[in-house]
């Protein structure tokens, strides 16, 4: 029934817009067995449903579809397969002690995804509408959100160019889809400190490139170096940049150094967002928490391996850790650099600040504890 209000709402939008209320839901007839949350291997288990939304230049965004999880059908000549016109996001949903499911800062992911889409020449979308579609999908599969403090539901939005042509150009067809899966610890070592191989032979990103966007090509090109790191007895790569060996990221994580800096100040530092660093959601959250505490200096600044080596020699390094959606916080215990093992201070399996940050973030994500003004910007209830 078209009321005057409904008519006004329809007239304000274009028929080609992405509209969450248009979502068509087809429920699966059979359901998979849910795994034990204590034995989850990251990215290997998927839920019963998925979200798909098609786009074309001629018709714009089509109706979103929540449907049974299954394989995609794409043309062998599509640009995602040949020219890496593709991007993705990573976010999580948590089950609180009140049994409610909540997403952790999802609008930051949506805005980052939109930025990546612009860089990849994929179509724009309304961040709020896409988030509503994702929330509908999580609602359908909410039983898959683990009843656990150490596990969560990983959400993987993905965006592909699907035009069936080998021409190197903006695609006139695209597919946005979202899949879900319960996950536990990202690293096989669990909460133990990771070891890093630092070598300037390989470069993750460069200024003017796509290092600040979450594109699949950034990760695919890093796999070779990752296996070389393993050959050297390390778990991850510490990516360096420039002749002065600037510290950038570690594996697929942002990096933090907690130390006494050159001026004798207690400081938590991380490389700045200058185009080669991915603006991580957990990174931003750690910076905000540290600044709110006001107990030490919090900086976004350049750090080099020479800075780190000198600080270690002078016993000024307190901790080093990575951060990301998948791992949350992961302490660093050792760096292999120019044939020398640099040992990073780490008390037990988890260094003090990393442990505190992990607890604070877990309290917000899982236990839904109020953190004054941070509470409102950290949560989006389902």
TrEMBL record:
Q: Which SUPFAM superfamilies match?
A: D-aminoacid aminotransferase-like PLP-dependent enzymes (SSF56752)
One Pfam annotation, family name?
Answer: Aminotran_4
Keyword Manganese applies:
no
Where is the protein localized?
Cytoplasm
**Enzymatic class:** transferase
Report the domain of life of the source organism: Eukaryota
Q: Which cofactors does this gene product need?
A: pyridoxal 5'-phosphate
Q: PTM N6-(pyridoxal phosphate)lysine: at which residues?
A: 214
The record's Gene Ontology cellular component field reads:
mitochondrion
Q: RNA-binding: present as a keyword of the record?
A: no
Task: Report the Gene3D superfamilies cross-referenced here.
Answer: 3.30.470.10, D-amino Acid Aminotransferase, subunit A, domain 2
Which CDD domains is this protein grouped with? BCAT_beta_family (cd01557)
Keywords attached to this Swiss-Prot or TrEMBL record, sorted alphabetically, are: Amino-acid biosynthesis, Aminotransferase, Branched-chain amino acid biosynthesis, Cytoplasm, Lipid metabolism, Pyridoxal phosphate, Transferase
Question: What are the recorded Gene Ontology BP terms?
Answer: L-leucine biosynthetic process; L-valine biosynthetic process; lipid metabolic process
**Listed PROSITE patterns:** AA_TRANSFER_CLASS_4
Q: Which GO terms describe its molecular function?
A: branched-chain-amino-acid transaminase activity
Coiled-coil regions in this chain?
none
Catalytic function, reaction form: L-leucine + 2-oxoglutarate = 4-methyl-2-oxopentanoate + L-glutamate; L-isoleucine + 2-oxoglutarate = (S)-3-methyl-2-oxopentanoate + L-glutamate; L-valine + 2-oxoglutarate = 3-methyl-2-oxobutanoate + L-glutamate
Q: What EC number(s) does its UniProt record assign?
A: 2.6.1.42
The protein's matches in NCBIfam families, at most eight in alphabetical order, are given as: ilvE_II (TIGR01123), PRK13357.1 (NF009897)
The record's note on quaternary structure and interaction partners says: Homodimer.
**Family as reported in the entry's similarity comment:** Belongs to the class-IV pyridoxal-phosphate-dependent aminotransferase family.
Q: What does the function comment of this entry state?
A: Catalyzes the first reaction in the catabolism of the essential branched chain amino acids leucine, isoleucine, and valine.
Q: What is this protein called?
A: Branched-chain-amino-acid aminotransferase
Name the source organism: Sinocyclocheilus grahami
């Amino acid at each position: 029934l078209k009321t005057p209000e409904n008519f006004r709402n329809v007239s304000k939008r274009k028929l080609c817009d992405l509209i969450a209320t248009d979502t068509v839901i087809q429920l699966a007839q059979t359901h998979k067995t849910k795994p034990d949350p204590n034995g989850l291997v990251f990215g290997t288990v998927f839920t019963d449903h998925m979200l798909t939304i098609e786009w074309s230049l001629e018709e714009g965004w089509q109706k979103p579809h929540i449907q049974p999880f299954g394989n995609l059908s794409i043309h062998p000549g599509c640009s995602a397969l040949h020219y890496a016109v593709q991007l993705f996001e990573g976010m999580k949903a948590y089950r609180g002690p009140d049994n409610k499911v909540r997403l952790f800062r999802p609008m930051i992911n949506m805005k980052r995804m939109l930025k990546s889409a612009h860089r990849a020449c994929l179509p724009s979308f309304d961040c709020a509408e896409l988030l509503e579609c994702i929330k509908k999908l999580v609602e359908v599969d909410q039983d898959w959100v683990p009843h656990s403090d150490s596990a969560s539901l990983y959400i993987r939005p993905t965006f592909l160019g699907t035009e069936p042509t080998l021409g190197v150009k903006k695609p006139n067809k695209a597919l946005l889809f979202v899949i879900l899966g319960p996950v536990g610890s990202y690293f096989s070592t669990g909460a133990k400190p990771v070891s890093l191989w630092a070598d300037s032979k390989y470069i993750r990103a460069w200024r003017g490139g796509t290092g600040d966007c979450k594109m699949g090509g950034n990760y695919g090109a890093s796999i070779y170096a990752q296996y070389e790191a393993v050959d050297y007895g390390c778990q991850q790569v510490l990516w360096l940049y420039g002749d002065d060996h600037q510290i950038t990221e570690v594996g697929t994580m942002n990096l933090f150094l907690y130390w006494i800096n050159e001026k004798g100040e207690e400081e938590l530092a991380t490389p700045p967002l200058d185009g080669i660093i991915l603006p991580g959601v957990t990174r931003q959250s750690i910076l905000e928490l540290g600044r709110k505490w006001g107990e030490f200096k919090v900086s976004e600044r350049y750090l080099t391996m020479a800075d780190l080596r000198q600080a270690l020699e002078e016993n000024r390094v307190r901790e080093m850790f990575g951060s990301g959606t998948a791992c949350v916080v992961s302490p660093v215990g050792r760096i292999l650099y120019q044939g020398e093992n640099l040992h990073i201070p780490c008390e037990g399996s988890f260094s003090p600040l990393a442990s505190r940050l992990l607890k604070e973030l877990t309290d917000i994500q899982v236990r839904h504890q109020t953190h004054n003004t941070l509470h409102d910007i950290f949560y989006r209830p389902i």
